Amino acid sequence: MVRLSLSSVRLRLLAAGAVSVAAALVLAGLGLALLFERHVERRAVAELSDHLDQVIAGLDRTADGALIETRLPADPRFDRPLSGLYWQVNAGTEVLRSRSLWDSRLTLPDDVLADGQVHEHPLSGPTGETLLAVERRVTLPARLGGEAARVVVALNRAEVRAATAAFVTDLLPYLAVLGLVLIGASWAQITVGLRPLAAIRARVEAVRSGRATRLGTDFADEVRPLAAEVDDLLEAREDDVRRARARAADLAHGLKTPLQVLAGDVERLRARGETAEADGIEQVADAMRRHVDRELARARIAAGLTPATCRPAEVADRVVGVVRRTPDGARLTWRQDVPADLVAPIDADDLTEVLGALIENAARSASSDVVLSGWRDGDGAVLTVADDGPGIPADQRAAMLERGGRLDTRGDGTGLGLAIAQDILAAWGGTLALDDAPSRGLTVRVTFVGA
User: Fold this and answer.
1) Fold assignment, 308-451
2) Where are the domains of the chain?
3) SS3 letters for 241-289?
4) pLDDT digits (tens, 9 = 90+) for 228-262
């Protein structure tokens, strides 16, 4: 379902299209009304001209010389008083008029017409209404006196306007339906036109979730350059991450080698019986090792992360396989209940470091048993590492999650440590929590949202 907001391009385009359609239909309606009114007026003038010919043809004189109309026009409105349709003949001092004029007369303009010339002009009607008049000047034949006469037939303009209003009333529903159709067509056009942007959004989501590494090139010509730029940016980002990882590895090698030398010096001091000095150097070396590992992890995370996913079951198998061969791991029973199809939104190497730290701590703390579990929680994933060791009192767990806190309290642990695991998880949107184990001991819970 498409959601529209005030900042939506789709809504803005639709609004602009609707306004354009409405304006076009208003102009079209006004234009059609004007054309129809002119058409009706031309038709009315043609009918008035026919009536005019009939009036002229019906003129005659009586035996005593009075001018009369012998053949009245057939339209019955000429006989109905104030009907809106009138005729009148002015011949010298004589005036003949239709019954519809009742006892009124039409006041003709003071213009001079050539013989036979037809003139269209407005007149004022018997009730003050505006009339559309057609006038002709004719010279009567000798038997009718041979004088000039002005013959006029007029129609109330209100009839023309009424016909136009009726046309507009009938036209409005069709314009409304046409407007809806055009707006619907505009919506369809906008939807089709913006579909490439929706495709880019879906590809970006796929890249972010780790289902894809690039947007690709199968887009419309207008958006293909944008997709190419994004892909170039992703490639540059991955290059930055690879260089950061390489620098971190080089730094780790450069710093850990001197630490190994110090470890050898510690062993030699103990062999000579200088235990106090050996313990002091070992504590300093361990502190240095923890800080180096933490800062190396932070440096890698600060370099940026490329969206990725992995299967925790595969990572757990590798880590447990390594820890089983250590003295602490060899004495324990290992159980894994992580679904093979479970997916977590984190790089496999980073999850290896996190689980490596947690599993090593569990191996050192457990009495006989370590259990790895995993399951999907809605759109997220949960991993747990539970041991049956002495555990950590509830009032001390918050301190374990603070800067420098450690699950390994004996000081001989290796790996990243709890604080670094938290840093890595935070970079991937994960969290770490400490809980009681189902029977006894400690459970470390790792939660990912939106896996």
Assistant:
1) Heat Shock Protein 90 (3.30.565)
2) 1-208, 210-306, 308-451
3) HHHHHHHHHHHHHHHHHHHHHHHHHHHHHHHCCCHHHHHHHHHHHHHHH
4) 888 888 888 878 777 776 777 677 667 766 777 77
